[in-house]
What we know:
The structure holds two protein chains of two kinds.
Chain A: E1 2-5, E2 8-11, H1 15-26, E3 31-34, E4 52-53, H2 64-74, H3 81-100, E5 107-108, E6 111-112, E7 125-126, H4 133-145, E8 151-154, E9 157-165, E10 168-176, E11 181-186, E12 189-192, H5 213-221, E13 225-226, E14 231-240, H6 251-259, E15 261-263, H7 286-298, E16 308-311, H8 317-324, H9 327-333, E17 343-352, E18 355-356, E19 369-371, H10 388-410, H11 417-432, H12 441-455, E20 459-460, H13 462-478, H14 492-516, E21 525-526, E22 539-545, E23 548-554
Parallel strand pairs in A: 1-11, 2-3, 2-12, 3-8, 12-19, 20-21
Antiparallel strand pairs in A: 4-7, 5-6, 9-10, 10-11, 13-18, 13-22, 14-17, 15-16, 16-17, 22-23
Helix pairs in contact in A: 1-4, 1-10, 2-3, 3-10, 5-14, 12-13, 12-14, 13-14
Chain B: E1 4-11, E2 19-26, H1 33-43, E3 64-67, E4 70-73, E5 83-87, E6 94-96, E7 99-100
Parallel strand pairs in B: 1-5
Antiparallel strand pairs in B: 1-2, 3-4, 3-5, 6-7
Amino acid sequence: MARVSADVLIVGAGAAGMYAAIAAARAGAAVMLVDKGQIGRGGATVMAQMTVAAALAEEEPDSVALHLEDTTKAGRGLCNEELAALVCSEGPKRIREMEEWGTRWARERGRIKQAIAPGHSVKRCCYVDFLNTGPAVAATLRRKITEFEKIRRISNLAVVEILARAGRAIGAIALDLPNDQFIAIDAPAVVLAAGGLTKLYARNSASANMGGEAYALALWAGAELVDMEFVQFFPIGHLAPRLVGMDPIMWDPFRYKLGGKLLNGQFEEFIDRYGSTDFGQYHATRDIAAYAILKEVEAGRGTPHGGAYLDFRHIPEKDLRAAFGPVIDRLLNNGIDLSRMPVEVGPMAHYHMGGIRVDVNMRTRIEGLYAAGEAVGGSNGANRLSGNAITEAFVFGERAGAAAADHANASSRRWDEELAQESNMRLDRFCHASDDNGSAPIVLQTELQQQMWDLAGPFRTGDKLSAALARIKEMKHNLEHLRIGAEQRFNLDVQDGFELRAMITIAETVVQAALSRTESRGAHQREDFPLTDYQLIKNQVLELRDGELLCRWAQPVRLDRSQLENPLVP
Amino acid sequence: MNAVAKLRIRRGSLDESSRFDNFEVPYESGMSVLDALRWIRIHRDSTLGIRYSCINANACKTCMALVDGEVEYTCMVKLKPALITVEPLPKRRLIRDLITDIVSEDEKA
């Protein structure tokens, strides 16, 4: 097994990973930035077409304290307030730094434009026109990282295990996909920035490659996870007609702006049947919209693809064109003429609030192991405020990269070849022992995604979650009987097998935490426990002990608000 | 109904002579060629070599191939309920099946 070394290894090259690489290189560290796909082109960032929240106070007075208040309110009492405050206080710096590096935030009359978004009490969300925020941000960071000689970039390298000994990370084992062989990486500091877990669900709005690997790598290495029950489901993701070239969650601002009608499969308005009114206003909250759509589907009144219709046909064509801009032509290219037809929408997995448990320096309890971006848990509590995801990618990325570099600069290497070889042999056995009677990993991935959607989706019950847990435990045994092709180059069965191994581990954490939380709060909705339980203003912390998953309750991290700065004035 | 798309896919690596494999895929209006390739991996042959990440937004730019002789992002080109031919990019070094070497030299292991 070949071995390479770095001061800081960064796993995942979306916005958080790339920002971490820049911060670590600025602090003088030799960085290795790796991604199982291509650097800066995978994960959630490139798909994020919407907005970035930061208290820039360009449009109207705003403050860090107010952004924090909106963030913690959305989080329903469970936010790690130290992490949330970090996002809110450092966000403006990072947004302006990105602009210096070339991101062209939409501007008007010399000021960065900031839009209002659900849950924000002021205009706070900046963006790059039109629906181009994530790709533009990724392009800026991709360009920026090439300016540092200290950043070594490696595409198509999938980290499959963190090497840790005596509570300390010493590096990792990675699969070099083009050559189907393992590489050992000697690094005293490792940053996990490989995103969330949307791939666990049959319906999701993100790239195809986030199967919870960051969480699994942390858990296996001995770190803790937090808030794993809180998966954010976006209520009106695009279902049909097949739409390519667009983020599936693109409809939300247009629905609010133009008043798109939600109709069931029989073309009836239905939101009013579920304790809200939508007539003429279209302001039903996201959770009610999601619940109402799925209940109509359950009652046999769904659309052909199992959702609801979103209908703009009552809007004059010139208003549609004014609101959608060039997007209207992209829709027409997909055969979607909004003046003549409704589209089908429904809830889909969009983001994960839970993740790796860290302190304000992004440190896990394993020395030398850090997390950044969506991989971090706790900052968003039970529900994420819109616009905070890219902000936290920048902020946590910068913080993790700087902290990891400081740690690497101050510590000596402790490579353990025996540990690496033992790991190599175990991983090689896992991925190359094919069982001809077994299933290909992608087949089991597809099954798991359907199970998670059906049994651990937006609306949960104890019975369904228990059934999911039983099936996940069976699937763990299937991992020993995968059918793996014999390809020597870019063996996708091997890659899928490692993804599946992480997906099954993390599916269990989501389901276990969802079972223990016998209440409904934020993104976690239990049909058998519809009320919020004020005894449960607590986080669930998960860890592995002797291979068994343990859950315990912990008090949310609170912040002394008097330390926050005064309002900013535009 | 039950329309079907037929895909003729060039397979193989540099070390072996290439071959064409034929697949039939259930067709739904609006489907992309990448949708069909992913369907094949799940339902017919998981060893089919393809590269993709974002699936449907033309954001990751990694799913390029030759579709009926034209260079296309397979996520952006619509499938037809007819026969189409999919081949690896001709001007890139072949790795396997539809996967070609699109990674710049300074990003390799």
